[in-house]
Design brief:
By secondary structure, the chain is α/β, with parallel strands linked by helices. Helices cover about 35% and strands about 15% of the residues. It has a single domain, classed as Metal-dependent hydrolases (TIM Barrel).
Amino acid sequence: MSGRASTRVVDVHAHVFPRIAKAEARLLTDTGAPWLRVDGGGTGMMMSGDDEYRPVGEALWDPARRIADMDAAGVGVQAVSSTPLMFGYAAEPSRAADWCDLVNDRILVLCADAPDRLLPLCQVPLQDPGLACEVATRAAAAGHRGVHIGNHVGDRNLDDEGITAFLAHCAGLGLPVLAHPWDMLGADRMRGHMLPWLSGMPAETQLSILGLMLSGAFERIPESLRLCFCHGGGSFAFLLGRADNAWRRRDIVRADSPRPPSEYVGRFHVDSAVFDPRALRLLVDVMGTGRVMLGTDYPFPLGEQEPGATIRACPGLDDADRARLLGGNAEAFFAPAQDLVTTEGRKQ
């Protein structure tokens, strides 16, 4: 990332929506494509075709405002990922690939304002894993430091054969992967009160993690893959004992997984966006201090408004532990592949 001390604060979960006009969005689909309406006075609207999707502020697209917010909050670095509305997984694959190239180019331009502070993450047309590999390869060559994906594509979870092949490709590139919940299940029963965000997102993330574990997908994906799940892994940590118990007692649970779920926690990271020091304490107990990284969900209002506050208030962490969660783990997670060092001190 740079030569600064590894104790600087690094936020791995921060979104952008680059300035993309309605006419440009038709690259993805003729109707209903996402674009950004900038209204003036620091306000705007995420649009889905002609429909207003969500009001937003200039921090979502203005790098100067973003850096000012980071300075005020004491955040040294953000890993910058697109807003999930932009994924485009329902579109025709070749159009989605062109769309992702456009989005990725705009993210690079946005991050170029402060290359030592903003780490660009690309997006890919995950509905076509072969094209996704091509887009990720181009993006990595252009300067992207990781890839941001949704946790499923329609009814295909992350353990889908094509998606696991894409994850293996990312491992080969040395490209870290940030998995974000989206398009939540049970939407017809989660009307109002932001229940898709409050309940659906944790459920989606739990489903993704258990799917990788119980399907045997982690046995097929290279151990070198750097994979992080947003929102603290959802309900995963609290329900891990339930999953282990089921694996031990029912052959249909363990049919495709040679090891209990708890033995796979060393295969991925999670962010810290759980908003309660007690919940974070459990998460750290389950994952270990080396696999939890600060994530705020900036700049959205449901994110952590004081970055790192939950980590600093978490009981039982010493100064070295807090330094790892606030920045050290992320420094290693996003380190260029040639700079990674094994626990024995040798470069991988």
